[in-house]
Amino acid sequence: xxxxxxxxxxxxxxGASSIAPTLGAIAESAEAAGVKTLTVMxxxxxxxxxxxxxxxxxxxxxxxxxxxxxxxxxxxxLLVTGVTYRYPGLLAKTLTTLDVLSEGRAQLxxxxxxxxxxxxxxxxxxxxxxxxxxxxxxxxxxxxxxxSEDDGPFQGKYYRxxxxxxxxxxxxxxxxxxxxxxxxxxxxxxxxxxxADACNLFVDGNPENIRHKLEVLRGHCxxxxxxxxxxxxxxxxxxxxxxxxxxxxxVEEMKLYAGLGIEQVMLMPxxxxxxxxxxxxxxxxxxxxxx
Length: 291
Known about the structure:
This protein is of the alpha/beta class. The protein contains ten helices and eleven strands.
């Protein structure tokens, strides 16, 4: 099992001027520790669990561009892009730009979006959930077309593109990996089986819930004639990053998930000194790699 890092806290003791150097230090420490993937949130208002809208939040793709310049190997992405926030053609172009400038390290993490407050606050349309999922599927289709040799038109229910031209193309071939976040059994996991290279589920302390979701995913793969084993299974650990003194208990817990087929756990450094907690990750990364 490998480790990813999901950065959610941008409110630091030094204020806004400390955000850039702290994020740079986090990225460099994560890469040195052997962390495979570095993600940030795709939100415009901070979420309630991390302090609410009065606290700092950065735009995601601008942040990833900065982190690309601070690292050499680590994979970069959002966990996850809200489908409502960007037109699909522009999203594909944005991902390609990140892939080119990071020299082949971009990942598209995407989902149906859910945080209505920031939509209302910033004037972004927030259609019903059924429509958001339809838009999500069209967005995936557009990205796949733009990342192919087909630069012709796309005609969908919601999006119409006269030409899906994307120059330059991605460094990664055939394209950046696509990860769909969420665990909805009827729609989200079906889209994973049909379009994605990876899924991201939530660890809630009960491995049986993950087992069930993966069984549902396997069923969708059977119906889509998709190789279940070709999909990378990842989880977001919904508690704070484990401290060194609790590493043994955490490793034992992760063994249960690895036994279900989980290949990566995403950790969230919290608190006022996130760079310090990331600098302590190397022994944990090494132990998890042995699972």
